[in-house]
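User: Structure please.
Assistant: Input sequence and predicted structure:
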Amino acid sequence: MNASEKIVPIAPAADDGTVSLYEVRRKIHPRAVSGRFFAWRWALIFATQLVYYGLPWLEWNARQAVLFDIGARRFYIGGLVFWPQDVVYLTVLLLIAAYALFLFTAVAGRLWCGYACPQTVYTELFMWVERRIEGDRNARIRLDAAPMGAGKLAKRAGKHAVWMALSLWTGITFVGYFTPIRELVAGLPFRLGGWETFWILFYALATYGNAGWLREQVCKYMCPYARFQSAMFDRDTLIIAYDGKRGEPRGPRSRKAGAGAQGLGDCVDCGICVQACPTGIDIRDGLQYECIGCAACIDGCNQVMDRVGYARGLIRYVSQNGLERGYDAPTMWRRAFRGRTLVYTAILAVIVAAAAVSLAGRNPLKVDVLRDRGALAREAEPGVIENVYRLQVMNTDAVARRYSIEASGLPGLAVVGVAQPVALDAEGAKLVPLRLRVAADAAAPGTHRIEFVVTALEDATVARREPSTFILPRP
């Protein structure tokens, strides 16, 4: 890597002797490499973007398959409909994501950062566009140094135009998860609501800025994960590391020179590992928080080892114990699945299994009982006490249903003031006002526990029992 590409500290100020705590950013021009990890990274990029861009266009029962309709307070995921009362599933999803991150990080470091993080994914996409228009690393360095002319202006304008188009489509797709995407696209560009326009532009600007301009600065300074990842590492965590025992002392040599010639190690000091790194670090300096685990340095080093005829793996996935003690791959993998990771795996499996069982047995009927605070209890007619309620009945199923409403808990308790059965459309909701009546001498004055029972006439297994109270006033 050229000295001009390194990140160097600001020199002390000459006038007052103060030293800035910030560093001057020198533009990084990552070198294109190919190899096994490059293929894995792009396979995941393709898979994640196929899901992200394609999912909003899928339909399910004549509606968008995945839609988070905040206005209607309904989240649709395939055949499932989630309501605000289902916020527990969001909690479970966050727990699954957290434990999965803990597990993957404890086993093999920053796999998420290197292969699936949106910052990595879109930075790779933007760099791919950059390489296609401006050329690989050396061509881009020369273009940066060249004076602005028609050729340079055309390349820069073309690159930024493609970046902006990709960013805008990314923003449109993001908003398409909250507003039906077909309606959204049909309303472009002048028939969109204010909020849709704002979030499309906001998300597009974030994508354009983070992936096109900030790039490694997001990973090094803005992302908190880089700062606390070390808490999830131990000496048996697989990390990307340089084998100093094999590589040192490093130095250039003739291609015809065999391994160990001139008293040198296998590292030919070509700098390819540094040039390929998207954050501009030298992995030979040891584990660093800036390393995002993308393995570009491994692919670059392996290419060089193939050319000079040395064994691959000078830079590789290896644990600190494995590097120091010379463990082979099977031994390192056995030690990777140790007590800590097994506990993470067990917790994750229990949470996933519990969530699956809960979803499989999920009741499509939801009922909320609200008492009329303005009239807690009243005498409807001589010797009859009446309480007023409102029932929020929600049918989260994909078929229409009719429901009966009953109440129990006091002798002779009767439901009046509502036409039964109560009919609800598929994925519909209705606020049902009703009254409960009971004889004044049916129980002692005071508050009594009762229960509403709402049952689907088409399927008696679809039922909900909701507790409430009934007040009998003193005479």
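The longest helix spans residues 150-175.
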